[in-house]
Write a structure and sequence with these properties.
There is one protein chain. The relative contact order is 0.17. This protein has 320 residues and is of the alpha+beta class. Helix 3 packs across helix 5. The strands form two sheets. The chain has an eight-stranded mixed β-sheet with strand order 1-2-10-7-12-5-4-3. A four-stranded antiparallel β-sheet has the order 6-11-8-9, with no helix packed on it. The protein has nine helices and twelve strands. 28% of the residues lie in helices and 20% in strands. Bound molecules: 2-oxoglutaric acid and fe (ii) ion (FE2). Fe (ii) ion binds next to loops. Keywords: Dioxygenase, Iron, Metal-binding, Oxidoreductase.
């Protein structure tokens, strides 16, 4: 087989979510385990998120980013204690990048009434749009992908032989961040210009919706030393594991490098990533005997220390 034919595995999750016969769940668990071990990524159908919710979300994203820039700037995530809100195009520059990412993004998370723990918990920022145009479809979609993220975590636990009862502690008050993204059309052949530059996701499970037909995501395959393009297909989700899962599984599940170069001809590309990390104070459910007892919060603080400031109490509480 030529490497050009290598594509990510496609897993039908309905055998786990709605098993019809003995063996259905086990088959899905094995498929997910193998995909995450080999690629750190897979695509999925049978995920349980209705098309109406996906369409509602994409329409809301379009409405949001269609607002005038000065209106969006008033919602900047840089001014928000919980890092919720709008991220302007050009705001993300990773070490070694030639140019900043061209994407613009908008972040929401758990809806907690007061700011706690250096802003890991707290209220969202909502744009001044009618609820039915933004808040309601976005929140409905957030809850649906939150649930899917949790299901994938369960499957990953089962894949390593652990009981899903471990999810009770892990998902008590889980950090679930949703990032809505718009990539502008790629500006010609600018070398070093990415929608999102090469990176690995920080944490747990990522549930990614790409606008159908708007290709652009590429995943690095270590063995082949090649970028694999990931097709953006209708009603097909992309799931991947972040660095926390890579580390906590002892490398049994991979956290793979990926990037986005908008491949749509002169058109913007929309996507939405829901990152399910786990409770701030939870420790490794993928190896309950892990002697390190490192918390989700400690990993978050280490990763984002350069970008955000965290108070001393939080740092002590999570053991960072
Ligand atoms: O937009 C995409 O397809 C991927 C986005 C991504 O990798 C990220 O935001 O971490
Ligand atoms: Fe990513």
């Amino acid at each position: 087989m030529s490497t050009d034919e290598v594509t990510l595995p496609l897993v039908d999750l309905s055998g786990y979510i709605n098993p019809q016969k003995p063996g259905d769940k086990e088959r899905v668990i094995a498929e997910v385990r193998d995909a995450c071990a080999q690629y750190g990524f897979f695509q999925t159908t049978g995920h349980g998120i209705p098309m109406s919710q996906q369409k509602g979300l994409l329409k809301s994203i379009e409405t949001l980013f269609g607002m005038p820039l000065e209106e969006k700037r008033k919602l900047s995530f840089l001014n928000n204690p919980c890092r919720r809100g709008f991220e302007e195009s050009g705001a993300s520059l990773r070490d070694g990048d030639a140019l900043p990412d061209s994407k613009e993004a908008f972040y929401i998370g758990r809806e907690d009434p007061v700011v706690e723990h250096s802003g890991f918990y707290g209220p969202n920022v909502w744009p001044p749009l009618p609820n039915e145009e933004f808040h309601d479809p976005v929140w409905e979609y957030y809850e649906a992908t939150h649930k899917l993220g949790e299901i994938i975590w369960e499957i990953l636990l089962l894949g390593l032989g652990h009981p899903i009862s471990l999810m009770e502690e892990f998902a008590k008050r889980p950090m679930v961040v949703m990032k809505m993204i718009r990539y502008p059309p790629q500006a010609g052949d600018l070398p070093g210009q990415f929608g999102v530059g090469p990176h690995k996701d920080f944490g747990g499970v990522t549930v990614l919706l790409q606008e159908a037909g708007k290709h652009g995501l590429q995943v690095w395959h270590e063995g082949l030393e090649k970028w694999l393009p990931v097709k953006a297909m209708e009603d097909v989700y992309v799931i991947n594991c972040g660095d926390m899962i890579g580390k906590w599984s002892g490398g049994r599940y991979k956290s793979a490098k990926h990037q986005v170069i908008n491949a749509a001809d002169n058109e913007p590309r929309l996507s939405c990533a829901t990152f399910f990390h786990g409770d701030l104070f939870a420790t490794n459910p993928l190896d309950p005997a892990d002697p390190e007892r490192e918390t989700v919060g400690a990993l978050l603080v280490k990763r984002f220390r350069n970008q955000f400031s965290f108070d001393k109490e939080l740092i002590a509480a999570v053991g960072a």
